[in-house]
C-alpha cells in the first residue's frame, strides 16, 4: 500500500487518500469525483447526485455525468428531467417541441395537443317569455350542451354551450296567482257539500221508508181480522117450479 493511502477511511470509502479523498468504495456504493475549485475529491454515495447516472462494473460502480442540458438521466443518451429552458421529449431535452406537440410549462415536457370536445345538444326547452310559459304568442326556446374535454394551450377552443331561437305558441291566458288554487278549493268544497247533501237525503229516505214499513206492520197487528160476508145466493133454498 502506498504511504498516502489509508485503510481506515470514513464515509463508505474502501481506500482513501488525505489529498484525493476516496479512491475506492465499499460494495454497492457509487464512486464519483466532486470538484472543489481546482481540486477533485472522490466520494462514495448510495445513489448518484443530480446530473449524474450510475453504471455498475464488476470491479467498481461509478457515477457518470449526464449531458449538459439534462438535470437527471437514465443513461447518457436518455434524459429523465431537463434543465431550465428545455423541454423533455423521448429522453431528449429540446429548446422547441416538434410539430404536432406543444410545450407544457408545468411539467416542462412536450405533450400532444388536446382539442376541445363538447357533448350533444339537449332537447329544446319549452317556449318562454320573461320566465313565463303563458300570456304571449312569440317567445324563445333554448338548448345547452356540456364541455367534456377542455383544450390544451394550442388546442381548438370550445364552442358555445347554449343556443336560443324564436318560437311561436298558441296564445294561452295566464291564471292569476292564487286564483286558480282558490277556484279549485271552492270546487272541492262544493263537491264535498253536494256529496254530503245527497248522502243525507238518501239516509232520510231510507229512514222514512223504514218508519212507514214499521207503521204498517204495527197496524196489521192491532186491527181485528174482518169476517167474510156470506153469499146470499148460497143461503136461498131452491124453488119448486113443478107446480
How does this structure look, described?
- This is R-spondin-3.
- Residues 116-170 form the Spondin-like TSP1 domain.
- It holds the Pfam family TSP1_spondin.
- Its main location: secreted.
- It is built from two helices and 17 strands.
- The chain is α+β, with helices and mostly antiparallel strands and 243 residues long.
- Among the domains are: 1-65, Hormone Receptor, Insulin-like Growth Factor Receptor 1, Chain A domain 2 (Ribbon); 73-112, Hormone Receptor, Insulin-like Growth Factor Receptor 1, Chain A domain 2, CATH 2.10.220.10; 118-168, TSP-1 type 1 repeat (Single Sheet), CATH 2.20.100.
- It starts with a strand and ends in an 8-residue tail after the last helix.
Task: Give a brief outline of the structure.
With 243 residues, the protein is an alpha+beta fold. 20% of the residues lie in helices and 33% in strands. Strand 2 (13-17) and strand 3 (21-25) form a beta hairpin.
Rg on CA atoms, Å: 56 Å
* CATH architecture heading of the domain at 1-65: Ribbon
Strand order, main sheet: write it out: 1-2-3
Distance between the termini: 199 Å
CATH class of the domain at 1-65, named Mainly Beta
Please outline the helices and strands.
Elements: E1 5-6, E2 13-17, E3 21-25, E4 30-36, E5 39-45, E6 52-56, E7 61-65, E8 70-75, E9 78-82, E10 87-89, E11 92-94, E12 101-104, E13 109-112, E14 117-118, E15 138-144, E16 147-149, E17 162-168, H1 179-222, H2 232-235
Antiparallel strand pairs: 1-2, 2-3, 4-5, 6-7, 8-9, 10-11, 12-13, 14-16, 15-17
Amino acid at each position: 500500500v502506498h504511504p498516502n493511502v489509508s485503510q481506515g477511511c470514513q464515509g463508505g470509502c474502501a481506500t482513501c487518500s488525505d489529498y484525493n479523498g476516496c479512491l475506492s468504495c465499499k460494495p454497492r456504493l457509487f464512486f464519483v469525483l466532486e470538484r472543489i475549485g481546482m481540486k477533485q475529491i472522490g466520494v462514495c454515495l448510495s445513489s448518484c447526485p443530480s446530473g449524474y447516472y450510475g453504471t455498475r462494473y464488476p470491479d467498481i460502480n461509478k457515477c457518470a455525468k449526464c449531458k449538459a442540458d439534462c438535470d437527471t438521466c437514465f443513461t447518457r443518451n436518455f434524459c429523465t428531467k431537463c434543465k431550465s429552458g428545455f423541454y423533455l421529449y423521448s429522453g431528449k431535452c429540446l429548446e422547441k417541441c416538434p410539430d404536432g406537440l406543444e410545450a407544457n410549462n408545468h411539467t416542462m415536457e412536450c405533450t400532444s395537443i388536446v382539442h376541445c370536445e363538447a357533448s350533444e345538444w339537449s332537447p329544446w326547452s319549452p317556449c318562454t317569455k320573461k320566465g313565463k310559459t303563458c300570456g304571449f304568442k312569440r317567445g324563445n326556446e333554448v338548448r345547452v350542451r356540456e364541455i367534456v374535454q377542455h383544450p390544451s394551450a394550442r388546442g381548438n377552443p370550445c364552442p358555445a354551450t347554449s343556443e336560443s331561437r324564436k318560437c311561436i305558441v298558441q296564445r294561452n291566458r295566464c291564471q292569476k296567482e292564487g286564483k286558480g288554487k282558490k277556484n279549485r278549493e271552492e270546487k272541492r268544497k262544493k263537491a264535498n257539500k253536494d256529496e254530503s247533501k245527497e248522502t243525507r237525503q238518501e239516509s232520510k229516505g231510507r229512514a222514512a221508508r223504514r218508519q212507514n214499513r214499521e207503521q204498517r206492520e204495527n197496524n196489521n197487528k192491532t186491527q181485528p181480522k174482518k169476517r167474510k160476508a156470506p153469499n146470499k145466493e148460497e143461503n136461498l133454498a131452491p124453488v119448486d117450479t113443478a107446480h
